[in-house]
Amino acid sequence: MTPVTDTIAAIATPPGRGGIGVIRVSGPAVPAMITALFGRDLPPRIATAATFHDARGETLDQGLALHFPAPRSYTGEHVLELHGHGGPAVMRALLARCLELGARLAEPGEFTRRAFLNGKLDLAQAEAVADLIDAATATAARAAARSLSGAFSREIHALVAALTELRMITEATLDFPDEDLDFLRAADAQGRLAAIRAQAAWIEARAEQGALLRDGLVVVLIGAPNVGKSSLLNQLVGDEVAIVTSIAGTTRDTVRSEIEIHGIPLSVIDTAGLRPTDDPIETLGIERTWAAIARADLVLVLVDAKAGDVGLASADAAILGQLPAKLPRIVIHNKIDLLAVAPKSELHAEAGDDHDAASSRCHVWLSAKTGAGVDLLRHEVLAVVGAHEDMEGVFLARERHLHALRDAAAHLAAAAQHLADARPPLELFAEELRAAQAALGAITGEVPADDLLGAIFSRFCIGK
Ligand code: GDP
Q1: What are the φ and ψ backbone dihedral angles of 244, each rounded to 5 degrees?
Q2: How many CB atoms lie within 10 A of CB 332?
Q3: What is the tens place of the pLDDT at every residue in 364-410?
Q4: When comparing pLDDT for 63 and 242, which is higher?
């Protein structure tokens, strides 16, 4: 990898007005920049009150300056932080001064990219930095913090270590072909491989939960006017924190509510916005909504408990008919308080469903008005998508990680098959183990390709 010789700078705090704003600088020019800015050195890692001057000695701002000399810094390079007043003009002036003194503008994620290249973080941790910043729920944030602290990476490293041992045993066997089978048997290759596969499966299961936490679920809500859709959404918002309902803005957003169930972010699309219209902008919004529905994870069909399954208006029945047949759905019978029916959930085999034997459908009876049965619905929603209610110990994972874990699992399964042979093809066995290890190594970035790094870090915010 080419050594980094230039110095980068960025405004690290979000745009707009704020109490303070932070400029971050990293690279070899930092010590000289400090001398130019302050006419003296700064004590390492201690906040120093300072006046920031422009080239002519005029005061730009007063604030705190922090110097983190290499290598004990976020990036592993010399890092300078200037904490000034958080106004856009002040921040721009301070940034311009840093550029004048030899820095260039940082690209998105470039600080973290340097931290990765300098061995401060592995790739899974670097991704966790972005996921922590982007986390939509407190649970997702905790899971990202767990990955950032290295919990996920440690699991992967332990797995790789066990795999390396098995590979060493296998390679030794390959070197002494006469003793091969006895040697492998004595070393309990089969038992070791089984343990590795069990561990990999356990990590994959938790990573899948982590991916649910990170990406959330898209839920489509269908129901006739006045059946209680808004009331149900309000109930689901309940006492959960960090909820934004119907973010104003584009037409598309007005039919979406962001809620959470046990820490999993849910984007609920209210199909009341899907009525036919002549308005071109609305039509565009509706097209986007349908695109979102194509990626939906679950449909909630709300009917009046009194009416039973037939309580859908024809427009809603039409929408329901256009949804992918395999999309899981829950039928919610609302307003049970008017019928004096107790909340319950039942699985019903559906007539007219596809011929899949497993196509029974979950029905939940509840009252959006009193809240009775809403917890039952939360439970069923998570059950239908395979999410656990307890997300403690889960690490936030990305699709990239899941892909690598599945890839590794497939190679381990192939290895197990080779080993089960009466005369195991040891070269093939060794090759599958090597491939499994390479797949796992990709998670922590043992041998990252440049384009992978580009894809990961370009999605960061500037200044991180
Ligand atoms: P939407 O048009 O589907 O969003 O329905 P709303 O949530 O606005 O509800 C329509 C009306 O039904 C309101 O007057 C609600 O108070 C009432 N409602 C909603 N859910 C219930 C329920 O579970 N029980 C009773 N009794 N009324 C409900």
Answers
A1: -120, 125
A2: 28
A3: 999 999 999 999 999 999 999 888 878 877 888 899 999 999 999 99
A4: 63
Beta strands in 195-292 (DSSP E): 217-223, 256-261, 264-270
Task: Indicate the pTM of the whole model.
Answer: 0.78
- pLDDT score of 25 more than 80: yes
Give the span between the Cα atoms of 136 and 318, in whole angstroms. 33
Q: Residue whose CA is closest, atom 22 of ligand 1?
A: 335
Alpha carbons 268 and 245: distance in angstroms, whole number? 10
Residues 204 and 245 in one domain: no
Half-sphere exposure of 129 (CA within 13 A, CB side): 24
Residues 13 and 101 in one domain: yes
User: What count of Cα atoms within 13 Å lies in the side-chain half-sphere of residue 247?
Assistant: 14
Nearest CA to ligand 1 atom 14: 226
What total number of domains does the chain contain? 3
Phi, psi dihedrals of residue 89, rounded to the nearest 5°: -70, -45
pLDDT in tens, 114-173: 999 999 999 999 999 999 999 988 889 999 999 999 999 999 999 999 999 999 888 878
CATH of the domain at 115: 3.30.1360.120
Residues in the ligand 1 pocket, defined by CB under 6 Å: 223, 225-231, 334-335, 337-338, 367-369
Residue 87, pLDDT > 50, answer yes
Residue 307 shares a structural domain with residue 428: no
Cα–Cα dist 391/218, whole Å: 19
Residues 86 and 178 occupy one common structural domain: no
Q: Report the atom number in ligand 1 closest to the C-alpha of 233.
A: 7
CB atoms within 10 A of CB 225: 9
Do 206 and 274 lie in a common domain? no
- Containing domain of residue 53, as a range? 8-122
269 in helix, strand or coil?
A: strand
Closest ligand 1 atom, residue 366 Cα: 23
Closest CA to 81 of 24, 34, 28, 120: 24
For 35-71, give the DSSP string: HHHHSS---BTS-EEEEEE-TTS-EEEEEEEEEE-TT
Where would I find the H helices in 216-340?
A: 229-237, 280-294, 314-322
Q: What are 401's two structure tokens?
A: 């990680």
